[in-house]
Amino acid sequence: MEKIKVGVLGATGSVGQRFIQLLENHPFFTVSHLAASEKSAGKTYGEVMKSRWKISADIPSYAKDIVITLPKPSDTKGVQLVFSGLDSSIAGEVETEYAEAGVIVISNSKNHRMDPNVPILSAEVNPEHLDVLKAQSTPGKILTNSNCTIMGVTISLKPLFDKFGLESVMLFSMQAISGAGYPGVPTMDILGNVVPYISGEEDKAETEPQKCLGTVKDGQIVSAPFSISAHCNRVPVFDGHTVCVSAKFKKKPSKEEILDAWKNFSGEPQKLDLPLAPKQAIVYREESDRPQPRLDLDTGRGMATTIGRLREDSLFDWKWVVLSHNTIRGAAGAALLNAELMYKKGLIGSSK
Ligand code: NAP
């Protein structure tokens, strides 16, 4: 079976490196196009990344000899799909250019997320949102991941929203340094410290989950009608965003009902046995001091959402703690899972 040619835009960044790692020996996709800024263009990936690779495994050999270009659709040579880990200062415009050139773009950037006919796709949560791609006028299509902080939160809410309805949610995040890209937050600002502000993050946390849990109507996504209040904080953790969540439901469930909903939650990635799908989408830890980034980050190869500390809330109904890997489940892994889903559904190449 011939593999589908794909590209990675922003291949040198924190998210880009994860794509390079996760795409090694992928059964459906082969990487033939890598793009980044002028600083990196014209050199091989191996040369540029010698001093910049930050993942604790070697740079995959397949990528080392690929020459990095600027992100231009004319340089793609038969690429059907690009994964974008571009900085948001240029992602919006560049991604539109690729879609106009007939390429499917799966983006990690914020730029197109709230466009009404662009899904914020989370493969277990809202695969039906793929329907709105038809309403995009370009020959290629754009879909996005959610913001990395709310990826695990939305997965934890999905089975509860479906069964009990949601009225309001309160979030308090503790976000890893790698979420700010590379080189990210200066050491002097974050070592031994907490920074109670991340530019633009609370706006995304207060709007994206409703869109993810929304419904498709006349080729557009209509956000679910519940409210969210978010506090977002940067903490001195390398990888892994931890979020404390409190929720008020339309119909208050029992503890057993919530645990049951999480335990039995699975979606199309599990049914279709997609290569990157975690066997268990949600893992609930019974220990009173879990989840913790150091202990639980790699659950399900970084693709599972780990939850713990479910207890009653005196202001809302219930509260819990969610952990997810920001560059895997919150970015490159989620985007690749979306591409696997599209491939299996015949929306990319041919799955015959
Ligand atoms: P990053 O480490 O700063 O990487 C940014 C990438 O964009 C680099 O490859 C960089 O290339 C490229 N780039 C910057 N300016 C460019 C230009 N003018 N032309 C072409 N390429 C350019 O950022 P990141 O953390 O990987 O994040 C990438 C995107 O994903 C952002 O939109 C971010 O908000 C989003 N995101 C990040 C995370 C996370 O956990 N880090 C999670 C979810 C979503 P050079 O190396 O050549 O400069």
What attributes does this structure have?
352 residues; alpha/beta; Rossmann fold; Dihydrodipicolinate Reductase, domain 2; 2 domains; six-stranded mixed beta sheet; five-stranded parallel beta sheet; 11 helices; 28% helix; globular; binds NADP nicotinamide-adenine-dinucleotide phosphate
Q: Describe it for me?
A:
Helix 1 (14-22) crosses helix 11 (328-344) and helix 5 (148-164) runs parallel beside helix 7 (201-212). This protein has helices at residues 14-22, 45-49, 61-64, 88-100, 148-164, 187-190, 201-212, 255-263, 268-271, 293-296, 328-344, and strands at 4-9, 29-35, 81-84, 104-107, 142-144, 166-175, 215-217, 220-222, 227-234, 241-249, 282-285, 305-312, 318-324. The strands form three sheets. A six-stranded mixed β-sheet has the order 9-6-10-13-12-11. It has a five-stranded parallel β-sheet with strand order 2-1-3-4-5, with helices on both faces. Strands 7-8 form a two-stranded antiparallel ribbon. The chain is built from eleven helices and 13 strands. It folds into two domains: 4-147 and 332-344, NAD(P)-binding Rossmann-like Domain (Rossmann fold, 3-Layer(aba) Sandwich), CATH 3.40.50.720; 148-325, 2-Layer Sandwich (Dihydrodipicolinate Reductase, domain 2), CATH 3.30.360. The mean pLDDT is 96. The protein binds NADP nicotinamide-adenine-dinucleotide phosphate (NAP). NADP nicotinamide-adenine-dinucleotide phosphate binds next to helix 1, helix 4 and helix 11.
The unreliable regions are none
Count the DSSP helices. Answer: 11
Number of strands: 13
CATH fold descriptor of the largest domain: Dihydrodipicolinate Reductase, domain 2
Strand content: 15-25%
Distance between the termini: 9 Å
Tell me what the CATH architecture of the largest domain is: 2-Layer Sandwich
Let me know the average pLDDT: 96
Radius of gyration: 19 Å
CATH homology-level superfamily of the largest domain: Dihydrodipicolinate Reductase, domain 2
Supply the CATH class of the largest domain: Alpha Beta
Structural class: alpha/beta
Strand order of the largest sheet: 9-6-10-13-12-11
State the helical fraction.
Answer: 25-40%
User: Which molecules other than protein and nucleic acid are bound?
Assistant: NADP nicotinamide-adenine-dinucleotide phosphate
Which overall shape is indicated by the principal axes computed on the Cα atoms? globular
Protein name: aspartate-semialdehyde dehydrogenase
Pathway: Amino-acid biosynthesis; L-methionine biosynthesis via de novo pathway; L-homoserine from L-aspartate: step 2/3; Amino-acid biosynthesis; L-threonine biosynthesis; L-threonine from L-aspartate: step 2/5
Family: Belongs to the aspartate-semialdehyde dehydrogenase family.
Pfam family, one: Semialdhyde_dh
